[in-house]
Write a structure and sequence with these properties.
The protein has 7 helices and 10 strands. It has 248 residues and is α/β, with parallel strands linked by helices. It has a single domain, classed as 3-Layer(aba) Sandwich (Rossmann fold). The strands form 2 sheets. A 7-stranded parallel beta sheet has the order 1-10-9-6-2-3-5, with helices on both faces. 44% of the residues are buried.
Length: 248
């Protein structure tokens, strides 16, 4: 795992986008197409802002997948990850994507997992964008995460720490409004990606970053599994890196 700290969250996000854009271009040059996974949340604001402006990417040859989505939340809700990616990514691209395979949390979640799983098995992922939750989660795989399932997408129960993070970031007015279930890309599916770009700013993530980078690999800190991937770039700001012993 490469750990890179920049002067602030904007610089960190821009560097993460540039790294990922180079990998997308490499896939396009090698195969004429590329497949990516997109994350959401406050940690991705600066990265996505830079990614949509990255030069020399033929987005009409890029297929995108959605990392996770709440079960039962309307697409019109301000916390909807479909709405988030539509506004912050899809509508800002200079060219339309080849395809975007959304998670529709308003459909039967088990059927949605099966539908998306069949599609993603035919699209090996070149670059996966992820973050790390305050509780150490990877996507919506809260602790203790399932490291064993081979299913690409699974239905998960959200723990209280995860739900409080969503409340704290301002997506919901009360804790009771935060959904208790979600459809999430599984840990093994994330790890099957050729490259993983992980962007994690803010001091509230410092403990999770430390445990994920310097602690043992354990389902109790789901993002610690990133230590086992051969090509992970973790982009931090000084706040999120503040508890690391060897931040660079």
């Amino acid at each position: 795992m490469r750990v890179i700290t920049h002067r602030d969250k904007r610089a960190s996000g821009a560097a993460a986008a540039a790294d990922a854009a180079a990998a997308i271009r490499a896939a396009l040059d090698a195969r004429g197409e590329a497949n990516i996974v997109l994350a959401t949340g406050a940690s991705q604001f600066e990265m996505l802002d830079a990614l949509v402006r990255a030069p020399r990417i033929n987005w009409n040859r890029v297929t995108a997948f959605h990392l996770d989505e709440y079960v039962g939340l309307p697409v019109t809700h301000r916390a909807s990850f479909r709405l988030y990616l539509w506004r912050r990514f899809v509508t800002r691209l200079p060219l339309p994507l080849a395809a975007f395979h959304w998670i529709d949390g308003e459909r039967d979640p088990a059927a949605e997992c099966a539908r998306l799983g069949a599609i993603i098995r035919e699209h090996p992922i070149d670059v996966a964008f992820v973050g790390i939750g305050e509780n150490g989660h990877l996507a919506f795989n809260d602790p203790p995460a399932n490291f064993q399932t081979d299913l690409p997408y699974i239905v998960v129960e959200l723990d209280e720490a995860c739900r409080r993070q969503q409340l704290g970031e301002g997506w919901f007015e009360t804790l009771d409004e935060v959904p208790r279930r979600a459809v999430s890309m599984s840990v093994r599916q994330i790890l099957s990606s050729g490259k993983i770009v992980c962007t994690v700013p803010d001091r509230r993530k410092a403990h999770a970053v430390r445990d994920s980078v310097e602690g043992s690999v354990t389902p109790d800190v789901p993002a610690s599994i990133l230590q086992n991937h051969p090509d992970v770039a973790l982009y931090l700001d000084p706040d999120s890196a503040s508890l690391l012993k060897n931040a660079t």
